[in-house]
Amino acid sequence: MTFSEFNLHDDLLAGVDAMNYLKATPIQEMAIPKILDGRDLIASAQTGTGKTAAYLIPLLDKISHADHDHTSTLILVPTRELAKQIDEQVEGFGYFVQANSIAIYGGGKGDDWDKQRKALETGADIIIATPGRLIAHMQLGYVKFDKIDYLVLDEADKMLDMGFSDDILNIVDKIPAKRQTLLFSATMPNKIREFAKRILTEPEEIRLAVSKPAAGIDQQFYLAYDNQKLPLLAHLIKNSEKPVQSMVLFTSKKSEVNGIVRALSKLGYEARGISSDLEQDDREVVLRDFKNKAFPILVATDVLSRGIDIDNLTHVVNYDTPRDAEDYVHRIGRTARAATTGTAITFISDQEQNRIVNIEKLIEREIDKRSITEELGMGKSPVFDPKRFGRRKDGGRGDNRGGRDGRRPNDQRSSGTGTGEARPDRSGKGRRDRRDKPVPQPTGEGVAVTADSVEPALPLANANGQPSDKPKRRKKRRRGPRGEKRENGQEQRQSPAPAAE
Ligand code: AMP
Predict the structure, then answer these.
(1) All domains of the chain in start order, with CATH
(2) Is the model's pLDDT at 43 over the cut of 70?
(3) Ligand 1, atom 13: nearest CA belongs to which residue?
(4) Burial (0-12, 13-18, 19+ Cβ within 10 Å), 285
(5) Is 84 exposed, middle or buried (0-12, 13-18, 19+ CB in 10 A)?
(6) Cross-strand pairs, 82
(7) Which helix (H) or strand (E) holds 330?
(8) Ligand 1 pocket, 46 CB below 6 A?
(9) Dist CA 6 CA 368 (whole Å)
(10) Using a 6 Å cutoff on CB, does residue 21 contact ligand 1?
(11) Which atom belonging to ligand 1 lies closest to the Cα atom of 461?
C-alpha cells in the first residue's frame, strides 16, 4: 500500500516522499486509518517495524489541517534516545508540514534544563518527553497542556518496567480527558492491558505477529549455573565454528558487565562494556566504535536493548535468558542477515527456565538444551525442569524465584532481576528521587544497543529517520513565533546528550 492511498495532506505526502518511504509497513497500513478515524489505539509493535511513522504520519496529517497555536500532541517515551529519534523523524516529515517538535529528556548536563524550559515556554506542536523530566518541568508551572488533543505512549512496556507508571498517570491527569490516546508496546503483558484500561477509551487493537527467527541462525542453548557461564562462554568462543568478528553479549545484571569484559580480555578478545554506569557521551563512543568494528565484542545490559540499530553480527549471546520471548527473537535477528549465517548462544540457568518455555512457544519448536559443563570439567549443569518455577503467561518477571531447589547450594547470588538494572519500581517509592538525581537507576538507560530492534525488511531511510536523500533546504520558512519554535527544537537536537532519564 502506498502512502497516497491514505488520503494525506499534500504537504505531508511531500515529506513522506522526501523520507524515501515508498510503501507502508504492516503496522502503518493497519494503524494509520484507525488513527485518522480518531480512534484510541493499543498496538503491539517493536522498534524497527515502522511504528514511529505509524503514529507520526496520521498525527501530522491532523496537525497540518488544524490551527498551530498550541501544543496538540504529547508523546511519552522511556529514553532520551527514542525521544531524539522521534524528534528527528518529525523534522524529516516536517520539511513541508507546518509542524514542529521539541524533545524533553532528563539528567541534563550544563544548561540543558534551561534550553528545555525555554523551548517549553515557547511551545511546539509536538512535545516528545521522558516522563520523569517532563513532570519536573510541569511542576514549575510553565508547561501548557490544556489543549492536548493527542497522547502517545511509545514503548509503554519499557516505561512501566522503568517504574514510570505513576509519573505517566500524573501527567495524564493534567491533560484534557477529551483526547485521542495511542499506546504502543513491544510486548503486551497483562500489566500493560490493565494500565491501558485506565487511560484509553474503547481502543482498537492491533497485534503484529512476531516474525520467526531466520533459518540461517544457529540457535544454541546451554544449561549453566551462573558461576559456570564465564568458562563456558570462553570455551564456546574458542571453539566457535565461525570466528567471532562482531558479538553482542547481553546480561541482565549491570554488575556483571565489567567482570565479563575483563574475563574476555584475559582470553585475548577485545571487549568493551556498555551500561548505565557510563556517561551518555561515553556510551555513544563505545557504540560508534563497535559499529565501526574497532573492537569485536560488546557487553551490554538488557536495558540498553532497544532503540538503536546494530546488525550484521556474527554472534549474539544471551548471557541470561531474555525475559520476553519476543526480545529473544529480535536479538538473535541481528545475526544471519541477508542469506548469511549467524550464531545465537543462550544460557539457561537454574532460575529462568520457564522463559525458555515461552521462547519455545513463540518459535514453535522445542529447543535442544545442551548440557556440556560436566564434560568440560566445570561440574554438573542445572537440570531443566521449568515446572519448579511456576508458569507465567506473559513470560514476565517473577519467574526467577526458584527457591531452594532451584538454586545451587553454594550459589549465594540471586539472579534474574535481583541485582539487575531492569528492576521495576513496584513500590512507587523513589520516584521523586529519580527526578531529583540526574543519573538514577534503573532508568538511566536509554538506548541503545539493540539487538532488540526488529530489522525491518524495508528500504530504510537512515536510522535517524532523516531522508536518505535529503532535499536541499526546500523547507518552507517559518515566520514569527513558529520560526522561533523551530530554532528551539534545533537547539534541543544540537545540544550534547545529557546523562540519563
Ligand atoms: P521504527 O520502527 O519507527 O523505529 O522505524 C525503523 C526504521 O524504519 C526507521 O529508520 C524508519 O525511518 C524506517 N521506516 C519506517 N517506515 C518506513 C517505510 N514505510 N519505508 C521506509 N522506511 C521506513
Answers:
(1) 3-207 (3.40.50.300), 217-389 (3.40.50.300)
(2) yes
(3) 460
(4) middle
(5) buried
(6) none
(7) helix 325-332
(8) no
(9) 46
(10) yes
(11) 12
Q: What is the pLDDT of residue 452?
A: 31
Read off φ and ψ for residue 205, nearest 5 degrees. Answer: -125, 140
What 8-state DSSP symbol labels residue 150?
E
| pLDDT value of residue 283 | 80
If one residue of 6, 13, 21, 84 were mutated to test the ligand 1 pocket, choosing by the most ligand atoms within 8 A of its CB, it would be 21
| 207 CA → ligand 1 middle, Å | 18
- What sign for the dihedral angle of Cα 417, 221, 307, 495? positive
Q: For residue 112, what pLDDT is reported?
A: 81
Give the number of the atom of ligand 1 that is nearest the alpha carbon of residue 24. 19
| Among the listed residues 102, 88, 28, the one whose alpha carbon sits nearest the alpha carbon of residue 61 | 28
Report how far residue 133's alpha carbon sits from residue 106's, in angstroms, rounded to the nearest whole number: 5
Q: Give the Cα separation of 480 and 420 in Å (integer).
A: 49
Task: State in Å: Cα 50 to ligand 1 middle.
Answer: 4
Residue 168 has pLDDT above 70, yes or no: yes
Residue type, 483: G
Nearest residue by C-alpha to atom 14 in ligand 1: 50
CA–CA dist 352, 350 (Å, integer): 6
Q: Is 152 in the pocket of ligand 1 (CB under 6 A)?
A: no
CA 114 / ligand 1 centre spacing (Å): 32
Assess whether pLDDT exceeds 80 at residue 471.
no
pLDDT above 50 (res 440):
no
| Alpha carbons 292 and 218: distance in angstroms, whole number | 25
Nearest to 426 by CA among 447, 397, 453: 397
DSSP state of 380: P
Q: What is the arrangement of strands in the sheet containing 247-251, beginning at the earlier edge strand?
A: 271-274, 297-301, 247-251, 315-318, 342-348, 217-223, 369-370
Going by CA atoms, what residue is nearest to atom 12 of ligand 1?
465
Q: Is the pLDDT assigned to residue 90 strictly greater than 80?
A: yes
- For residue 461 and ligand 1, the question of a CB distance below 6 A is answered with yes
Residue with cell 499506546: 183
Whole-angstrom distance, CA of residue 158 vs CA of residue 131: 12
Q: pLDDT (tens digit, 9 = 90+) per residue, 61-71?
A: 999 988 878 89
**Averaged pLDDT score across all residues of the chain:** 76
Record the pTM. Answer: 0.62
Cα 289 to chain centroid distance, Å, stands at: 21
Contact 44, 211 (CB under 8 A): no
Peptide bond into 498 cis (omega under 30): no
CB-based contact 234:267 (threshold 8 Å): yes
